[in-house]
């Protein structure tokens, strides 16, 4: 019979210390001894003692160590477990600090860091930040971006759940592109041509016939050869679709509530990250809206500038429109409705009063379009005719048309780009800063 022996990961001596894994609980243990784990973020040697900054899952904790023998064993980025006394210190960011009694090194770095990550500002280029992403994300400000992004998604999810939506997970390998056009990634699917999903659009609409209200948070793939600060070839879409609507404005109203919920979630649960990054949250009351044609005319009237693009906005127009609307209404958001039919996909419903316009909208936030949505065609005959009018083969959309043939309620929905919203919220000019591991036309690693 074999006898198995298991080695402990820690050589920490037996102690009566309290094992604390949540830093938020530390204030409950002032003047008591605790066990904490984390990584050595920074060591600052003073006369007779040293400050050690311990990076935990969410916070960086100030520690004081006066045992030179312990410090001699430490390197920055070493993973450690420590025994320490919790001491009140109002000058520290958390209002407490740890006085170190014992440290066990669990693992240490075997190479020098290629980039300095523990300064107040990470003074390097965006390219370097992305090239060394597994390391630069350890910087407390860089990782705070993605805690805030987590809060946005939490607010999105909780609001929709409270309003009767069901979360779905649609396939990302598909038989046809939802948007059409050339901006689609093709792949070999066991000898058949398939694609990476441009959107969960078809599946969202199908599931409206099942659950009435659905949402999804998932990857979106666009084979657009844009090398700009606002485009990614893979991004995270926050999509929802809702049935039995009276108007596409019902969708706009739902998004307004969703955005309010996301801001409230950030205010309630993500104060440390907001403070660390100096984030200015928007105040959302009612979001103003105007038609696309009205917006174009307003920009020309207020600025005297005429832009060549007649069926869409140029980036500069989005920026100018945001400035005008904020100045005149106080809102940092603006809905633009009734986009020209030529610029909207085949499933978007046209305005019965003006077929050249669609019952659709974009949401622009701080000068950047972050959402596209609208009312969908739910009638089988109307959808079939629209496909034919655009020279598209109905047989290629048989699964999509199946739902129309067997009855669908009036419905609509939207897709919001998580990285774009995060970037605008945090004041970033480049959307890559708000993406963990960006994929663009030049970047496939790390």
Descriptors:
446 residues; alpha+beta; eight-stranded mixed sheet; five-stranded mixed barrel; 12 helices; 30% helix; disordered N terminus
Give your account of this protein's structure:
With 446 residues, this protein is of the alpha+beta class. It has twelve helices and 19 strands. The protein has helices at residues 68-72, 126-131, 133-136, 140-162, 201-211, 248-269, 271-277, 292-303, 315-329, 380-389, 398-405, 418-426; strands spanning 18-19, 33-45, 50-55, 60-65, 79-88, 96-107, 166-167, 173-174, 186-189, 192-196, 213-221, 234-243, 289-291, 333-337, 350-351, 354-358, 360-365, 368-375, 411-417. An eight-stranded mixed sheet has the order 7-11-12-19-18-17-14-13, sandwiched between helices. A five-stranded mixed beta barrel has the order 2-3-4-6-5. It has a three-stranded antiparallel sheet with strand order 8-10-9, with no helix packed on it. It is elongated and about 80 Å long.
